[in-house]
Amino acid sequence: MTIPEAFEDQEIFVTGASGFVGKALIEKLLRSCPKLGRIYVLMRPKKGHTIEERLQLQWETRLYERLRREQPDARSKLVAIAGDVEQLGLGIGSADLERLRNVNIVYHSAASVRFDDALSTAILLNTRGTHELVKLALEWPKLKAFVHVSTTYSNPGVLEVEERVYPPLADWRTTIKLAETYDTEILDIFNLKYGNFQPNTYTFTKSLAEQVVNEYRDRLPIFIFRPSIVVSTIEEPMPGWADNFNGPTGLLVACGVGILRSQNCDPNIVADFVPADIVARTLITSVYKFMGESKSRAKDSDLYVVNCATANISPITMGEVIEIGKTFIRKNPFEKTLWLPGGGMTTCPVLHFVRFCTMHLLMAIVVDTLLRLYNEKPFLMKLQRRIFAAFSALQVFAMTEWHFQNDNFRALHDVVPVNEVSTFGFMQHANINYTEFFQHGIRGAKEFLLKESPESSSAARFRVKIFYVLDFLCRGIVYSFLLRLIFRFLVRLW
Prior knowledge:
Keywords: Lipid biosynthesis, Lipid metabolism, Membrane, NADP, Oxidoreductase, Transmembrane, Transmembrane helix
Enzyme class: oxidoreductase
CATH architecture of the largest domain: 3-Layer(aba) Sandwich
Number of domains: 2
Shape: globular
Strand content: 5-15%
Protein name: Fatty acyl-CoA reductase
Largest sheet: 7 strands, parallel
Pfam families: NAD_binding_4, Sterile
Number of helices: 20
Membrane topology: Multi-pass membrane protein
Radius of gyration: 24 Å
Strand order of the largest sheet: 3-2-1-4-5-7-12
């Protein structure tokens, strides 16, 4: 049976459909499995738009342009379901619950990926939300596969991460009860102690969600899919598509506009990035494999876990990412550049702090002062505070290298029929040309995130030349001042 045949007439339920992974998954399912039944997507009204309006706006984005051109009728297969992962029963009404009784496949990718969320918020979204969906799925008699999308960083205390569930950091039922009982401030006081000193609430609550899934493995056809850091697409539906600033995309954009000059990060760490379209492909092939092996799988077998990680297939260090970005961005700069694109990494926190004060805060003060003089709203100091808070939350990940075992992930390529490798395979991309990949990623950031032309204007290129001269002069002045101080100090010593 081919992969599209396996998905023929299947009814699919997707949470997190408006997220990065959810969007890529839905587009891939509709385009490559054209005979599937329906895709029900859980959505809530947002920013004055109803769920139907939000779904239509998503359908009209560039991501779905190829799908609209090749299969214009595919829109009719998307059905919006009103609900909220943070609510009991996911907030789904009785009429919609009845429609979902025929669901065959569940993709649970909804989660709060903010590292600075309050503990109570993260518990209700990531842990209780998973339990609520699992309870609903127990009532769906035709269910064949339930995919819980987790993260390879759900156990950050383990540096050699295997494709298995690790012992719990806390009791998930007690944790949910605490979030339902106590207010946000009280829980935040005990956050580090109760969370076993996890780096953030995201990894802690995703780890507990895996315990929920593991407990129901004998009652549901369920497994865990752990992507690492999801980045822009490598091939389809177009290279370089992204819808957020997470991971290296945000790092390169911040360096590219000149507001990020220093990072407290180890440049020699091998980073684990996986393109969004590879995640979408393997989410589909993992279900294909899981359904094909369902009859032969023993009920008391261990939970099937897939580490969707590629560092041991296509390694690249964080230092190499930054160098590729700096080189290309100076040739193809952003339109809103505030200073010369650049930035550097250091493992020394003292040096980073000095750089942050001189290169970040001083520049923010100067720019905001000039904006006030021209009666414009200052923004850079506020933005620098947000950058500082974001990088503080990411500190552990910037200084630590994990190794993810991925035998189950690699095996997904082997189950793809030979004539479908170009559509659903991924090992053909094993030797990624990272220079070309991040060039596409930067163009994608310009187009999809910053709403600029993928190619820079002549004015943007001219500004970078001016910034290059100004940067050289400023460095010369600073270094001269420092040398003068050192000279005076030495003279006094003599």
